[in-house]
Amino acid sequence: MKKDALPLAGKVALVSGGTRGGGRGIAVELGAVGATVYVTGRSSTGGRSDLDRPETIEQTAETVTAAGGLGIPVRTDHSRPDEVRALVEKIAAEQDGRLDVLVNSVWGGDPLTDWEHPLWEQDLDTGLRLLRQAVETHVITSRFALPLMVARKSGLVVEVTDGNTARYRGTFFYDLAKSAVIRLAVAQAAELKPHGVAAVAITPGFLRSEALLEHFGVTEANWRDGAAQDPNFAHSETPAYLGRAVAALAADPDIMAKTGRALATWGLYEEYGFTDADGTQPDFAAHWAENLQEQYGPLGDPL
Asked: What is the pTM of this model?
């Protein structure tokens, strides 16, 4: 496909939290359909974040460019309004005020999540820090980025979450954070609709991130061996699957019909026809209904 035939050629995207996992997958797949992608996060060649992982925004940006787009890394702490303001000013200056896609994918809450205790037995400071990291960062980023979209009366905001139902997610602060992110999409959609800008939330299924591969002691090359530890892992999906879902949404001329909704890879692949990196089409909701519903109950209706 010629570069000028790519659906997002000439479009500009900002993927916050694009260092690894779903954020990296989204950034790369937006690049694969021609977008210029600003990749932001705290982990860079200049130093690691407190998560102390090896992935960097520069690596993601290089992969975006190799995929066919243009990746631009900008080290940004999205909990700091001054850094986010400077980031958006940089995008506006370099792209003539253009921003077509904003992806709020900042998370970093895994080491802050207590899966063992109820609210009244959890460390309050840690729980509140999780909310600041996983929710406030999204609010701050949208606050400064949305004016670029409103001025052009077009664009798409994507809030990345876990689950697209009201189902309890296993522990208080994690559940509150992921549910709140869905509500961020709903609220932004309501305020942005008169300006022609859409906002949606999206969830992957069982995401096969770098950290999860490490957890199971496998690589992407032999990831299926992890199913010996957890049979559900056989139904996992790569970050590219989530990325292709977002790229399809960003290229959809009728995206306003979906504004305010909480979407999932397992529903969107049927509509848009995209596949995972290996050509499969994982459907975690179908797997849940067949194998997990009896034990854990229904996954829940989409919000």
From this structure: 0.96
Q: Give the DSSP letter string of 74-138.
A: EE--TT-HHHHHHHHHHHHHHTTT---EEEE-----GGG--SSS-GGGS-HHHHHHHHIIIIIHH
Is it the case that residue 4 has pLDDT exceeding 80? no
8 Å CB contact between 144 and 81: yes
Q: How many residues does the chain have?
A: 303
Q: What is the CA radius of gyration of the chain?
A: 18
Burial class (CB in 10 A: 0-12, 13-18, 19+), 53: middle
Does pLDDT of 3 surpass 60? no
Give the pLDDT confidence score for residue 137 in this predicted structure: 98
Is-catalytic flag, 269?
no
* Candidates 38, 168, 174, 241; catalytic one: 174
The tokens for 174 are: 């994690």
